[in-house]
User: Which sequence fits this backbone?
């Protein structure tokens, strides 16, 4: 797995010496250390980049007995901003990132030309429709103003949620890069304004409806299961919104990196996540092929 030279250069030098002693060649310091050449009693350090609540989760997982038993040492680095986290992964500044949905990864790879790879699913964090004006979806009035994310993946996700709530209709071919221009039926003549989706809770008083992801909602004191008018549930229609662990393509088969998916779903970690986030991070343990179908 790739290491940041500024943090892990000494480890890379040590690894090179060990591999040389075993008669192995790696083609450079950026190559992965395979489990066959690693001392089974030594923990392999993996730098995992995260933001918001995922930082808290992975700092906890790093200290679990499960991590120790797996022989993995996790170094958690907080990086704010989805594009920044993916770029840090592309450039090898972090080995793995934990923050994004399957749809977000597809959008990033398509727009940037990167080839980042998902290797494990973690959870569905439901997006919700929130309002300070209405108490139920049925109350939404003609011409209501809806605040929607200004980034493609969360905007399309929000539109699919509005459709699930019965407020709009989208074409069958609507995908992760769809926009409001794709709406084919808008019976309540909803008006849309784009916002930085991290500001969702702060604009509740300024608009009629706001589409807010659960991480941001929780930071604003909202619980999607209790405070939203309508929210996502796990189904084939929401599988693009399942969160994933991501690494560089060449690292996706690395045995130590693959352990992170198992660590996330360990009983120890799941009990902690359930308690800390009140059930709003719904665990999903599926093969990546499930998302690709």
Assistant:
């Amino acid at each position: 797995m790739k290491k940041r030279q500024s943090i892990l250069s000494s480890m890379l030098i040590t690894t090179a010496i060990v591999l040389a002693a075993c008669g192995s060649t790696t083609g450079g310091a950026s190559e992965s250390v395979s489990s066959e050449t690693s001392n089974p009693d030594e923990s392999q350090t993996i730098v995992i980049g995260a933001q918001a609540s995922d930082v808290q989760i992975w700092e906890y997982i790093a200290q679990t007995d499960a991590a120790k038993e797996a022989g993995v040492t996790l170094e958690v680095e907080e990086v704010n901003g989805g594009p920044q986290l993916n770029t840090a992964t592309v450039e090898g500044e972090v080995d793995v990132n934990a923050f994004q949905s399957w749809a977000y990864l597809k959008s990033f790879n398509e727009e940037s030309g990167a080839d980042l790879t998902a290797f494990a699913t973690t959870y569905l964090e439901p997006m919700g429709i929130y309002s300070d004006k209405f108490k139920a979806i049925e109350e939404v009035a003609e011409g209501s103003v809806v605040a929607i994310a200004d980034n493609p993946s969360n905007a399309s996700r929000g539109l699919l949620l509005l459709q699930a709530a019965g407020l709009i209709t989208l074409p069958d071919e609507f995908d992760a890069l769809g926009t409001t221009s794709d709406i084919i039926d808008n019976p309540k003549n909803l008006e849309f304004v784009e916002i930085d989706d991290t500001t969702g809770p702060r604009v509740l008083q300024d608009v009629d409806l706001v589409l807010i992801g659960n991480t941001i909602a929780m930071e604003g004191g909202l619980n999607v299961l209790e405070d939203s008018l309508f929210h996502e549930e796990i189904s084939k229609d929401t599988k693009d919104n399942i969160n994933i662990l991501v690494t560089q393509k060449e690292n996706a088969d690395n045995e130590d990196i693959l352990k992170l998916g198992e660590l996330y779903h360990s009983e120890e970690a799941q009990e902690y996540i359930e308690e800390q986030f009140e059930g709003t991070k719904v665990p999903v343990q599926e093969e990546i092929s499930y998302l690709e179908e």
In short: The chain has eleven helices and eleven strands.
